[in-house]
Model the fold of this input.
Amino acid sequence: MIKDDCIFCKLANGIFDTNTVYEDENFRVILDIAPAAKGHCLVLPKKHFENALVADEDTLGKGMILAAKIGKKVKEAYGCDGINIVQNNGEAAGQTVFHLHIHVIPRYNDDTVKFEYDSLELKDEDFKEALTKLK
Ligand code: AMP
Ligand code: ZN
Done:
């Protein structure tokens, strides 16, 4: 349940102090220590899962519902124009802390936060290949 060498296990379970905006039996929502914007929150399950790909469905479902609730609260509190609810799985995908967490990030029309990529121009056969692999 709790992984000894996991910092987010310790934060989520109150073993280390952190800025908590919400807590229930299964989750703690904290302020990100290096936020993209004021009000940037992290939804942490108390149970340790390395990421979303190995987490149980109950945790994933409840985590997303909670992230949306927190997003609504953050939007009302900060009057931002939008909210990113994002979540990284694996180092290549930008994950730096290997305990499942969901970012709730306030966004403004004129902000400089970036989630960018260059779109590929795929051929029909690439789409067909994707369907063969993924369906
Ligand atoms: P990710 O890159 O998706 O793994 O996100 C990890 C996030 O955790 C980053 O936004 C960090 O700023 C944040 N973070 C790391 N350590 C702490 C901490 N002790 N308290 C709060 N946020 C943290
Ligand atoms: Zn953990």
Observations:
- The radius of gyration is 17 Å.
